[in-house]
């Protein structure tokens, strides 16, 4: 499943948080479109119409779904530097015939990648290592930003907004297990909501935001047509109000699905073992007592975007908001083991991506640091 709609919230941290009675400041970002009221989707008919709108847009981007024509997609991009990798110009060329057999050829600055998936097992030309965060962000945004499982969505809300002179519909999705009070349900976007803004006239996705502070903007000025699909000519991914990736989808064309040569790894690639498996983004919340927070003062969350190795250690980390305590939030998350799931013997190494929301709350007896 491409998207993981799960925020794990423990009972004790929520109870402790409720006792502080501190309001949470709403998300603020120059690219946020839903700043006013959004309407809850409450009836079966409304839910069906909303899911249909998302599914219509998703059909354009399900590049890895069963039945997608075999293709070669070429992307050029520029990216800012991240924790482990320098920025610069990059290329991503995907040759795809099925979820079992595909090929990536990528560069970013002095980094290069050749990954071949053969019969469902991926191998790299170089020794297995972490994939740059910017490259993973690009892949998430282009190949499958809209895959979701409606039954696992606890709440849907919609808002009509103006985008480039047209009225489009933004759909806000809160994951199953998350809480929304009646007041928040009618307010602007909440911290736990993902956002998909779709033009109902064309069925095309205009804005995708996995979490506040992270936005992908799709530009169809030089759109690519491929069979019954329309792909944007350009995509910009912004974090904390600054463009982190600016990409151009330069071409897409059919390829010969019977020619298996491009999907045959060399003996050296096989000898190195399977490549690092990329997982879909997940969301976490960390509540931290702070002496500087007074009861009644507004909490300003800061979200830290990270990648994790198979032991749960942070590899790359960057802020999606700038607040008074954001530097402390970044330091706290970067020095924490966030995903303690043990590695199963015989399975490929894993790389996870996560958005960690840090909320500093007033210190109270018995309240420690909680990672949900």
Note down, in words, how this protein is organized:
14% of the residues lie in helices and 39% in strands. It is mostly beta strands and 372 residues long. It has two domains: 11-24 and 276-371, Fusion Protein Consisting Of Minor Coat Protein, Glycine Rich Linker, Tola, And A His Tag, Chain: A, Domain 2 (2-Layer Sandwich), CATH 3.30.1150; 43-157 and 195-271, outer membrane lipoprotein receptor (LolB), chain A (Clam). The strands form three sheets. A 13-stranded antiparallel β-sheet has the order 1-7-8-9-10-11-14-15-2-3-4-5-6, with helices on one face. The longest helix is centred in the N-terminal third of the chain and has 18 residues, at 44-61.
Just name the CATH architecture of the largest domain: Clam
CATH topology of the largest domain: outer membrane lipoprotein receptor (LolB), chain A
Fraction of residues in helices? 10-25%
End-to-end gap: 21 Å
**Multimeric state:** single chain
The tally of beta strands, per DSSP, is 21
> For the residues shown, what is the average pLDDT?
86
Order of helices and strands: HEHEEEEEHEEEEEEEEEHEEEEHEE
Look at the helices and sheets and give the structural class. Answer: mainly beta
Number of helices: 5
Outline:
globular
Please state roughly what percent of the residues sit in beta strands, choosing from under 5%, 5-15%, 15-25%, 25-35%, 35-45% or over 45%: 35-45%
Poorly predicted segments:
1-20
Biggest sheet character: 13 strands, antiparallel
Q: Which CATH C-level class of the largest domain is it?
A: Mainly Beta
* Total domain count: 2
């Amino acid at each position: 499943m491409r998207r993981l709609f799960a925020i794990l919230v423990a009972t004790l941290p929520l109870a402790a948080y409720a006792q502080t009675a501190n309001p949470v400041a709403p998300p603020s970002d120059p690219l946020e479109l839903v700043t006013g009221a959004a309407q809850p989707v409450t009836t079966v008919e409304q839910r069906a119409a909303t899911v249909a709108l998302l599914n219509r847009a998703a059909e354009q981007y399900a590049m890895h779904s069963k039945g997608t024509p075999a293709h070669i997609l070429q992307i050029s991009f520029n990216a800012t530097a991240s924790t482990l990798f320098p920025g610069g110009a990059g290329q991503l060329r995907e040759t795809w015939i099925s979820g079992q057999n595909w090929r990536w050829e990528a560069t970013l600055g002095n980094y290069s990648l050749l990954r071949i998936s053969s019969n469902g097992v991926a191998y790299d030309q170089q020794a297995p290592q972490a994939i740059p965060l910017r490259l993973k962000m690009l892949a998430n945004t282009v190949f499958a930003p809209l895959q979701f499982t409606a039954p696992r969505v606890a709440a849907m809300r919609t808002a009509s907004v103006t985008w480039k002179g047209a009225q489009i519909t933004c759909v806000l999705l809160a994951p199953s297990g998350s809480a929304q009070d009646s007041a928040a349900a009618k307010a602007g976007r909440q911290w736990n909501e993902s956002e998909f803004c779709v033009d109902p006239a064309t069925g095309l996705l205009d804005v995708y935001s996995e979490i506040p502070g992270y936005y992908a903007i799709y530009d169809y000025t030089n759109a690519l047509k491929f069979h019954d699909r329309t792909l944007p000519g350009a995509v910009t991914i912004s974090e904390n109000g600054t463009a982190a990736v600016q990409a151009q989808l330069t071409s897409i064309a059919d390829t010969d699905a019977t020619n298996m040569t491009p999907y045959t790894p060399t003996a050296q690639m096989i000898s190195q073992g399977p490549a690092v498996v990329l997982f879909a983004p997940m969301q976490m919340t960390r509540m931290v007592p702070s002496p500087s927070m007074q009861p009644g003062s507004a909490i300003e969350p800061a979200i830290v975007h990270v990648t994790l190795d198979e032991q749960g250690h942070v590899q790359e980390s960057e802020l999606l908001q700038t607040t008074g305590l954001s530097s402390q939030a970044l330091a706290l998350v970067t020095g924490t083991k966030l995903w303690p799931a043990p590695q199963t013997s015989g399975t490929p190494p894993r790389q996870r991506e996560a958005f960690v929301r840090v909320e500093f709350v007033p210190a109270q007896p018995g309240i420690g640091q909680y990672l949900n």
